[in-house]
Amino acid sequence: MAFLGTAARRGMACRKPLSPLCRATTRCYSSQSTHTTEKSVPYEKTLKQEDGISGPTKPLPKFADVVVIGGGSLGCQTLYHLCKLGMTNVVLLERDRLTTGTTWHTAGLLWQLRPSDTELELLAHTRNVISSELEEETGLETGWIQNGGLFIASNKQRLDEYKRLMSLGKAYGIESYVLSPAETKDLYPLMNVKDLYGTLYVPKDGTMDPAGTCTILSRAATARGATVIENCPVTGIQVKVDDLGVKRVKEVQTAYGTIQTPCVVNCVSGPLSLKKMAGVSVPLITMHHAYIVTERTKGIQNMPNVRDHDASVYLRLQGDTLSVGGYEHNPIFWDDVSDKFAFSLFDLDWDVFMQHIDGAVNRVPALEQTGIKSTVCGPESFTANHKPLMGEAPEVRGFFLGCGFNSAGTMLGGGCSKELAHWIIHGRPEKDMYGYDIRYNTDYKYREIVGKEYTFDFPPHHDVICDECLTCRNAIAVFDMSYFGKFYLTGPDAKKAADWLFTADVNKAPGSTVYTCMLNKRGGVESDLTVSRLEPSPAHLPLTPESNGEAYYLAIGGGVAQHNWSHIQAVLQDQGFRCTLIDHTEDMGMISSIQGHKSRELLQEVLDSDLSNDAFPFSTHKIVYTAGHKVSPDFVRSGEFALERMGVTYKATAHLKSPFDPENKRVKGIYG
Question: Residue ranges of the GCVT N-terminal domain (predicted)?
């Protein structure tokens, strides 16, 4: 048995200067840390199980409405929620046994607070399924333990973030409290609070049993008509091309037969061979992800789980022991992913894991003399923006993704699977899942640049922005919007498509531009954009398409261009519109506008046109509001309003018109 302190020091002592490539395969361990060499046993056991089983656990059906691939947390949750929404002819295929990849060894933490209202709702649904819904439906316990959660703030900025989380959670009925270091010590006596600014305590956070939960989910789904087939690896996905040239899922191929289906859901987050199937790009990678389990720690019973974001470490209560882990700063990538890797683990690399030991011992000093009971180092998939990949792939219709959950699959699985099931059945999720949408997960230079500006305070270029704003107000400014998406919509049915897609009437005189919202398949708002009607003519510019009928130019925000492109394409395909959508985003620049007090004077100097208010009026547009309640002026006047910022509530007044420039004169250049 090794102690956390001594094991870490021994790991440090045996370090060798290794290249990054060598570090992925070479290990250096303390001779006393024999627990790190026991990881091959589960793998050998799996091979013996496979040798004794000749085929799938159930016969394959000839047809299924949906085939879910992967029997982990996401696969089982998706199957369950599809059945909850009324589908019965649904099949789950697992290459080995349920939870064989990532789920069986995951920590099973569930925090309720995240800095997004959508994620709060997703987490709340998962918690409801795990803590009550499944047990009420099946009579089986999921292993839910509500011991609370504690977020650690080692600096003022982090504590401010947690205060914002508290305010956001309050709007959703999530109980949480900001504690002083002294109050934290009273709650968690073993904790070192000397370097703390404070903590955020959430009493109803907890943990679950991931493997047990998956078993119960599968039982609940099969009771509703679903079929779960284990020991049945998928070998391919057959795609067909329809009369419009659109690729669609046709069937799922396995070593034991095929299942015809119009819909496949990739819920595989361990071995990622599905990345190569059906021509679908799945932008994620697999890494070694680890935690250790301590020996019994006196005084740790009934303590909340701990998350220290600055130290990148968590402490999960397991009876009278702790699981200690976190996100690795220098992870080991697993490039050669094996399809035979089942219920298996890697040896722990102490060089990589050392950072978590330091953070844990600093936060709970008693752990330095606590023994290590076991280590767990398994595969986990991660995405570039640390968001899951969900929704229908743009390359193949009927190919859905529910993977890449960045070690949060059990936590987000219930909520995300409910949305994914709704997506599959109704064509879109109920909630705003835009950040998770596979159509959004494209590498944009614009988003990368903007991401560097994210802060709770003034951004690094605040002074530059200030100068630009003052220049625009007092003189003139040219806005370069070349990062916008630039599409052309042409073809015999272009007008029909425009009438279907856009809320405003874009069929004005040629040369006009209309600001409008774009509808989704269920009549809600997908996005906003500007639509310009073009003059029917042969191509008079290098990038302008030839058009003998209706043609439109669409200008769409750069960060949502790929998402909108995929949405429009899906509508054209589903509705059978004879249209062509052309993308010239990377080929064209865009000077969006010239604005400011003297903008009209400048344009009048360079353009031989009358730019007076009468001849060139400011563009008008109509804003359409939809959530199900009519908000009338009387309703607004009768209400009482308040705003909360970082735990402090302020009285607020609602205005029917903006108190600043209520007559909207400044935007028209009238500053008097």
Answer: 453-631
